[in-house]
């Protein structure tokens, strides 16, 4: 939860960072050297400098000043001189500016009890509780990287059972394995594999728990689908195109039949995204219910977010069974620390819901076996 700091004195010495780096600073990070795009010509190590984000990507690497559109992020202390930053030496990849007066009081949790804590947004933690994994079960996280929800699933199961994590990008799979190792979770098996191909379509013998998998192999499945990511915040640059946004619904509809067929009768399927579009959320739920008669929409526990959005043809009862986190629908008023000290638990939940990322959750029960007919045909 972020609290804005006002009246920070801006310094004559300036540095400009890229939009991605700027978003990380707003979340509590320091500025790492590769993220610095521009720095004042007289900047040296130990200087107090003002940090700005180039949200349109117009600043040239190595510029001495930048007069384009930029957002103030706060003040920090440079650990390097301008000459060192732009020397091109590959070893300079550590912290370039240590933030001392960020505009938001959002503390960094990097290296804070790393084997005990894993930082997550509120909805990301809620979705795993909605899945409700139980010890001894076989769980599939179909699009798992970087592994926050995967490790949460294993923790809720007390590391008893089997958690299969799939992602088609190799370095992201390695990140899942690293997180599992760091947290001491032995029930997780991560594979570099395309989730759309995770269903075994022939009678080849099982290959010791590696993908692809036979139909009805899993007790619960989390489909945290690739999406347009419009709920991610803070975000310093809006670079989505219509083509990019509309490309996700077909991909989600390729993953969904795989998840349904891999799920055992009586099993739970949770579909989630970190976006706020109707097309990727409520429309997908309506499509799934009409395409797969074996699925029934279920109420969720805990229910912290709001209900679903109208416009996809779902009933009022169905909308109430969905969970949508959308901070844009309820503006967050200025809040100070004194107010929070006297807040009730319900008020804190309401405040957290307003100040979190945009997110969507739907929970399904597979009440009967999937038809042998391919639902995609």
From TrEMBL:
InterPro entries reported in the protein's UniProt record: MeTrfase_RsmB-F_NOP2_cat, MeTrfase_RsmB-F_NOP2_dom, PUA-like_sf, PUA_sf, RCMT, RsmB/NOL1/NOP2-like_CS, SAM-dependent_MTases_sf
Alphabetical GO biological process terms: RNA methylation
Every SAM-dependent MTase RsmB/NOP-type domain range: 42-367
The keyword Methyltransferase is annotated on this UniProt entry: yes
Binding site for S-adenosyl-L-methionine: 143-149, 167, 194, 224
Pfam family, one: Methyltr_RsmB-F
CDD domains: AdoMet_MTases, PUA_NSun6-like
Keyword Transcription attributed: no
Active site, renumbered: 274
This protein's UniProt keywords: Methyltransferase, RNA-binding, S-adenosyl-L-methionine, Transferase
GO molecular function: RNA binding; RNA methyltransferase activity
PROSITE patterns (UniProt xref): NOL1_NOP2_SUN, PUA, SAM_MT_RSMB_NOP
Assigned protein family: Belongs to the class I-like SAM-binding methyltransferase superfamily. RsmB/NOP family.
This protein's name: Methyltransferase NSUN6 isoform X8
Organism this protein belongs to: Heterocephalus glaber
């Amino acid at each position: 939860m972020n609290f804005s700091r006002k009246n920070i004195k801006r310094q004559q010495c300036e540095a400009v960072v890229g939009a991605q780096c700027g978003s990380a600073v707003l979340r509590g990070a320091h500025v790492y050297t590769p993220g610095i795009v521009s720095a004042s010509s007289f900047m040296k190590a130990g200087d107090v400098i003002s940090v700005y984000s180039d949200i349109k990507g117009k600043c040239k690497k190595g510029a001495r000043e930048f007069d384009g559109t930029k957002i103030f992020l706060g003040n920090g202390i440079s650990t390097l001189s301008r000459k060192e930053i732009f020397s091109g030496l590959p070893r300079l990849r550590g912290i370039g500016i240590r933030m001392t007066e960020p505009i938001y009081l959002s503390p960094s949790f990097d290296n804070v009890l790393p084997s005990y804590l894993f930082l997550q947004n509120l909805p990301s933690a809620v979705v795993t509780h909605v899945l409700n994994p139980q010890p001894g079960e076989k769980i599939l996280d179909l699009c798992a990287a970087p592994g926050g929800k995967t490790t949460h699933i294993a923790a809720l199961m007390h590391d008893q059972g089997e958690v299969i994590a799939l992602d088609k990008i190799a370095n992201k799979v390695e990140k899942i394995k690293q997180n599992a190792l760091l947290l001491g979770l032995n029930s997780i098996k991560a594979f570099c594999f395309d989730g759309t191909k995770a269903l075994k379509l022939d009678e080849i013998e099982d290959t010791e728990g590696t993908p692809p998998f036979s139909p009805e192999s899993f007790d619960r499945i989390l489909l945290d689908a690739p999406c347009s990511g419009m709920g991610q915040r803070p975000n310093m640059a809006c670079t989505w195109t219509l083509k990019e946004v509309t490309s996700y619904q077909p991909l989600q509809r390729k993953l969904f039949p795989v998840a349904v067929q891999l799920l055992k009768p009586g099993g739970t399927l949770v579909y989630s995204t970190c976006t706020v579009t109707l097309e990727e959320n409520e429309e997908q739920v309506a499509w799934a219910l009409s395409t797969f008669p074996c699925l029934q929409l279920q109420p969720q526990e805990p229910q912290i977010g709001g209900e679903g959005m109208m416009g996809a043809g779902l009933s009022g009862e169905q909308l109430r069974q969905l969970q949508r986190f959308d901070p844009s629908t309820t503006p967050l008023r200025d809040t100070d620390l004194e107010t929070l000290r006297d807040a009730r638990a319900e008020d804190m939940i309401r405040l957290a819901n307003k100040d979190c990322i945009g997110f969507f959750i739907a929970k399904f029960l597979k009440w009967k076996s999937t038809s042998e007919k391919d639902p995609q045909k």
